[in-house]
Amino acid sequence: MDEILEILEKNALVTPEEIAKMLKKKPDEIKKAIKKYEKEGVILKYKAVISKDLIKTEESAVRALIQVNIAPQKDVGFDRIAERIYSFPEVTNCYLISGTYDLLVIVEGKNLHQVSQFVAEKLSCLENVRGTATHFLLKKYKEDGIILKQREENKRIAISY
């Protein structure tokens, strides 16, 4: 992968001037390359990785990883049914995977009921969906290569004999 992309992938806040210093290139050259990557769709979005456990909100989102077994369609394979699935607003990620299941879908909702309702009423009843396995996300330790800090401190009482 291009060095500019590697730097931006690790930290999207790095300025073109800083990248130019790192790579011993001119800032205008870096800016031009970044604009080209954005125009070509290589760079799709700049993203902040947020440790949501550290944010105190009453409405914590519930996330589920759903394995989906589907019957591929003639001439289009998995693409058309995957497109229908990832078009739902509840779906945050959708991947074609190898193994027993065909798709891994990550879904977000306000509560367990909302996520389970999505699976029962929208996902499972789609034509070509043969089965699902839902796994609720309980805790995140690392995301996008970043270890997420936890607010919890060790509350165990030390015992000595």
Description:
The protein is α+β, with helices and mostly antiparallel strands and 161 residues long. It has 2 domains: 3-40, no CATH class; 56-139, 2-Layer Sandwich (Alpha-Beta Plaits), CATH 3.30.70.920. 31% of the residues lie in helices and 21% in strands. The protein is built from 5 helices and 6 strands. It has helices at residues 3-10, 16-23, 27-40, 79-86, 112-123, and strands at residues 62-70, 91-96, 103-109, 129-136, 142-143, 146-147. The strands form 2 sheets. It has a 4-stranded antiparallel sheet. Strands 5-6 form a two-stranded antiparallel sheet. Strand 2 and strand 3 (103-109) form a beta hairpin. Helix 2 (16-23) crosses helix 3. The N and C termini lie far apart (56 Å). The mean pLDDT is 89.
Briefly summarize what is shown.
By secondary structure, this protein is α+β, with helices and mostly antiparallel strands. It has two domains: 3-40, no CATH class; 56-139, Alpha-Beta Plaits.
Main features:
31% helix, 4-stranded antiparallel sheet, Alpha-Beta Plaits, flat, alpha+beta, 6 strands, 161 residues, single chain
